[in-house]
Amino acid sequence: MAIHSLLLAALASSASAVNLYVASYAGTVSTLQVTPGLGEDVYAASAALRFISTNKDCGSAPSWLTFAENRILYCVDEGFATPNASVNTLKINADGSLTKIQSIDTIQGPVSAQFYNDGKNGAVALAHYSASAISTFLRTRDGRLSPLENFTFTAPPGPRPEQEKPHEHQAILDPTGKFLLFPDLGADVVRVYSFDSNSKLKEQKSLQAPTGSGPRHAVFWSPKQSYSKSDIYLFVIHELSNRIISYAVSYPSAGGLEFKKLQELGLYGDRADPVGTRAAEIIVSPDNNFVLASNRNATVFTLPNPDPSNSTQIPSDSIVTFNISQKGELTFQELSPSGGSFPRHFTLNKDGSQIAVANQNSGNVVIWKRDAKTGKIGDRLATAEGLGQTTNVLFDES
């Protein structure tokens, strides 16, 4: 693995370090230490990366990471090379390295995990892409899991080749903490479930997506992060149509969720969509003012090589930023480089001053400077290469 850190003149020993966890289809979860620099202001900070450790206790194909209480990291294994997949719990040690707590088999193809019903019968829900399924597990605060339910779906093939069957692609919890949503790329729906005190799921009316659009991921938003039931919005990113659709969300007295479509936008601003482009991740910035999404499989930038001894330029896909109005309307702001090919996942640090991008086909993670006030993404700060096909990246600032 190679690490290239840029803009190091501003590094200072007083700067506190945080860790970066990177999942890869190489069968690894890597810990990298990020040491921020002190520039002229917080947005001029530089960064240095240092390799800490590699863990191989998340199966053959780690695809998703999420933090739990008590310094525990959940890692989902998609299970390409094995009859079953798995969900794994790892203890985060003081130095950032990981120690296995438990591994439990699942049905094939989990790609996302979401905690729900926190308390005595707390649980985690998994979305399974290749198995066309949802699974749930009861969990304890010390990272122990036990199987709860499996739901497998069938549907006629959709109009796109990727829609030969249902493909659950994400699990998310609504702001009230009462409903789970599962975008299904293959069936063009967002499935909705409620759950009881024992964490068992009950199907509710789904959100129907446009035919052939392939809903992949989604994120909730509310002005001032109030999440009043009368002021909640859902932004859904569609992999196959490469569109974001926004909905006003309401909670009818009869139960479930209702969705009113408000807006549909492309992910390239005024540009036409490049042939073959595929949307991936979508998040809301920590200050609640911006939506960011990633575009894969379409080179729109060419960058200098982070290795100063290598003159070969780097083709780059893109990250798109939208402003959010108080009425949930999105306005295109900018298109920025991801730092490589196929940005499957990305994340912001707590104050929004850095963005880390996992470029799957480039086998790297790139950290970029970001102006948290304006939302604009700036200079490349550091690059870690040779990680295999990177699938997920998280800042650990706790």
From TrEMBL:
Keyword Lipid biosynthesis appears in the UniProt entry: no
Coiled-coil regions listed: none
Gene Ontology terms, MF aspect: 6-phosphogluconolactonase activity; isomerase activity
Gene3D superfamilies reported in the protein's UniProt record: YVTN repeat-like/Quinoprotein amine dehydrogenase (2.130.10.10)
UniProt keyword annotations, A-Z: Isomerase, Signal
Signal peptide residues on this chain, from the entry's feature table: 1-17
SUPFAM superfamilies xrefs: Nitrous oxide reductase, N-terminal domain (SSF50974)
Record-linked InterPro entries: Cycloisomerase_2, Lactonase_7-beta_prop, N2O_reductase_N, WD40/YVTN_repeat-like_dom_sf
Family named by the database record: Belongs to the cycloisomerase 2 family.
Protein name per the record: Putative isomerase YbhE
